[in-house]
Design brief:
hpI Integrase, Chain A, 418 residues, two-stranded antiparallel sheet, three-stranded antiparallel beta sheet, mainly alpha
Length: 418
């Protein structure tokens, strides 16, 4: 006969306490249960006593078939050092977690609603993360997704280490939000597997003249509405975030004005209109917006088609061939700066147009000697529809010391100085 169990009832500040033993808990852990009145606590203790007696009676009269199953289960678990009771507790906890979890799609919808006040770039990152997670884990509960599955997911949607880190950061933010009370839909430990990869900083990456030409020709052929944005990026070195905030009214024949609230340094900048960019904008004038609809996907498609290893869902498969080169970070901006330095543009003028707060030291450290003058001329002469734009010993800026000195030189041919 099973031993007659007793359950102690104790009065505490939280109420009348009854302790449920681990043997009667679905989680396999001891639980403390509180009640407002002693009567309710006594009723609960009586139910526990009934469960304990039934549990003991079942143990004393276990069916032969159940005993056989238990023996086989114990043999399966033995190499792993897990008892049958421990295994049952783990399964029970998994089922409880599943019941208290949330569908991936529903959780993502609520998460995106709460993040609507974020910046455009941040919201786009969350939307891309959401689309990918729903594609791979549709219909799944958050608590059922394993660390290995999550790591494989991020790997599949990433190319370079920088993109891996970016996607992993977005998922960690989402997971952290889901794990907090009152939601408590998942375990934050799941995303610990997404460790940030160390980015080795070496020499900056720039595009060659052939790569620049291939990029612009691809845009002309596949997505002509994207041509102005690519041309502005290459021939002004504008940051991506600044390009996203650019309005058609900011662009004139004289140049491009960047308002203080659209720049990284919160300072107004003016970029004189480069001759090659003017030629491109004459053939591909800007319509209502600088960036066309669906720019993010189209921009990736152009780079992918031009031969770069870029993940793009407009292709099947979306992942690029492994032998394709990685797109360099800030490729167009770094290429433009290298071209300007090679063509002799004064660093002070270029520092202002580039919006560097640290002076010319950054340009000297990273761009001097990166590109030959011959290669820079090839890039600066790329025009629309295969046209070659003549490169006049460009660049000094009219505000540079070089230009002032040129104007001050005496006119030796007797003609009026232009």
């Amino acid at each position: 006969m099973p031993k007659n169990p007793t359950f102690k009832i104790t009065q505490t500040k939280q109420g009348w306490k009854v302790e449920k033993p681990a043997s009667l808990s679905p989680t396999g852990l001891r639980e403390r249960c509180f009640f407002k009145t002693r009567a309710k606590a006594q009723q609960f203790a009586a139910k526990l006593k009934e469960q304990a007696l039934a549990h003991g009676a079942n143990a004393a009269t276990i069916r032969p078939a159940l005993a056989d199953e238990a023996t086989r289960a114990a043999d399966i678990l033995k190499p792993y050092g897990i008892s049958l009771l421990d295994a049952a507790k783990r399964i029970a906890k998994m089922e409880m977690d599943k019941e208290s979890s949330m569908d991936v799609g529903v959780a993502l919808s609520q998460f995106l609603l709460e993040k609507e006040d974020k910046s455009d770039s941040q919201r786009r990152a969350y939307e891309k993360m959401s689309t990918a997670l729903q594609t791979d884990f549709t219909g799944r509960m958050l608590s059922t997704i394993t660390p290995a599955e999550l790591y494989a997911h991020v790997e599949a949607y990433s190319g370079a280490d920088t993109t891996f880190n970016s996607r992993a950061t977005s998922i960690k933010t989402f997971w952290r939000w889901c794990s907090r009370l009152p939601r408590n839909w998942c375990d934050l430990k799941t995303v610990e597997v997404l460790e940030k990869r160390k980015i080795r900083k070496g020499a900056i990456g720039v595009l060659t003249s052939e790569q620049c030409r291939a990029l612009l020709v691809t845009a002309e052929t596949r997505y002509p509405e994207c041509v102005p944005a690519f041309a502005i990026g290459l021939f002004t070195g504008m940051r991506q975030a600044e390009l996203e905030r650019l309005e058609p009214g900011d662009i004139t024949h004289e140049g491009i004005t960047l308002s203080a609230d659209s720049t990284k340094t919160n300072r107004r900048r003016f970029i004189e209109m480069p001759a090659p960019l003017a030629a491109w904008l004459r053939v591909y004038p800007i319509d209502e917006t600088v960036l066309p609809a669906n720019w993010i996907r189209k921009e990736k498609a152009v780079r992918r088609k031009a031969g770069w290893r870029v993940w793009c869902d407009l292709f099947d498969p979306p992942g690029a061939p492994e032998d394709s080169p990685d797109w360099p970070d800030n490729g167009l901006r770094h290429t433009h700066a290298s071209v300007m330095v090679a063509l002799g543009k004064p660093l002070d003028s270029l520092t202002f147009e580039f919006g560097h707060s640290g002076g010319a030291a950054v340009l000297k450290a990273h761009y001097v000697g990166v590109m030959t003058k011959a290669e820079a001329i090839k890039i600066w002469s790329i025009g629309p529809s295969g046209v070659v734009i003549p490169v006049i010993e460009e660049v000094p800026s009219p505000f540079s010391e070089h230009a002032k000195a040129a104007k001050a030189r005496p006119n030796t041919d007797g003609k009026k100085q232009a």
